[in-house]
Request: fold
Amino acid sequence: MRFRTAFAFDIRFQWRHGFYWIYIIICAFYLVLLHLIPDHYRDQTMLLLTFSDPSALGLILAGGIVLLERDQGIHDPLFVTPFRVREYLLSKASSLSVLSLLAAWVIHVVASGIPQSPIGFSAGIILTSSFMTVLSIGVVARCQTINGFILLSQVFALPFILPLLGYFKVWNSKVFLLLPTEGTLRLLTSGTLSMSLGNFMYSIMILLFWNVVIFAWAKMSFEQHVMKRIGKGGGGK
Amino acid sequence: MKKYHMLFISDIRHTGLDPVLMVGIFAPLALLVVSRFGFPMIADWLSNGYAFDLYEYSSFAAIFLVMTFPMLTGMMTGLLMLDERDENVISYYAVTPLMRRGYMVYRLVLPSVLCTLLSTLYFIVSGLSSFQFEHIYILLLLAFEAPCFALFLASFAANKVEGLALSKIGGLFIAGPIVAYFVPSPWQFIGAWIPTYWPAKLFFVIETASGFSVLAYFMVGLIFHLSLLSIMVRIFIKRAD
Reply:
């Protein structure tokens, strides 16, 4: 019940601050770009755009939301209620995943039709979006300013873009198989190409594993850097 | 001048806390190093592996990368201004000798100066373009572009969350050089409303023409940038009040 209320509130918050309108503009821009790109590059470009934006939108936006809540002193009253950090993180991750999923589907359906494996494609978007959102919250808990957060979040996210090197055949390494984004790329590819069950299972498992790990880390980071300062004024600053 | 000096010293002291200056300087320098040393390596790799001549696109790469300087310094300044507005710091500056106007002038001049210096350095050192006298026109447009990006966020966003969301749209303005280079001539004026289109277009015009056409493109670009800046300054002041 608490989660459902928080989820609905987060969706309303994102709507009120124009996230959905901004993503309509961004999707429109990407669709124009995809229309201009030659056919044989279109699928790769679409995958790159989906990977770097809708699926990773939480990386920047979630941190901004937490910083604003901290400035407004929302955490103090919020966490004296029975509301738990676990529910807070889940609510942020799932609400931003909705936006990610909608944006990714719009781009895919308009540019190249319904994904060949809708379940695989959607699972890739949702699990990557939740991973990036929770990573962002874990990072922002340690930051004081928005620019400091942007810088640190890029440092934390950098290792996770390495599988793109393998995807574009620049440099391949077995180590990439250990990264969640290798799973993301495989699941996103299932939008245009068929995918084996083994591949599907690997991608889901590696993403789930990393989601659990990053969730535990972000929860600890949030409790250490935000919760422990609650009540000391400045909304946990 | 002393009031600005104090603020500058304070910004340097807080570089660890808010890395606008640090990133504003080091990110363009990193791009400069990549252009100088990385571009020839990538060009060789593409030439040997895929028979693709990247050098044909070196002038496009030069202006595309330079265009990220005002975007980077401007948007980071815009987010800093939003941070300061959310924390009511701007109201404190308003009652000091600096006043609100002084605060805004300082915040907007710094990215402008930074962007101009780094862009000049890029044109001279990157090896992707040779510096010509007419490039001063481009540098002037870039100097106005950085504050435009800062105010795009600070004027239209109500807080840092909206600022971050708007910065996603701000990132799309990188389309200016793409339109100026790849879109055929009669159609490319559709992209004329994008601020980054004008310095990029001027850069390509300088490569092929001289005299009146260079001056004409510069003047149109300058008027466009000054109009944008004046509109956004007015919106920012209205919002701060």
In short: The mean pLDDT of chain B is 88. Chain B is about 80% helix and 0% strand.
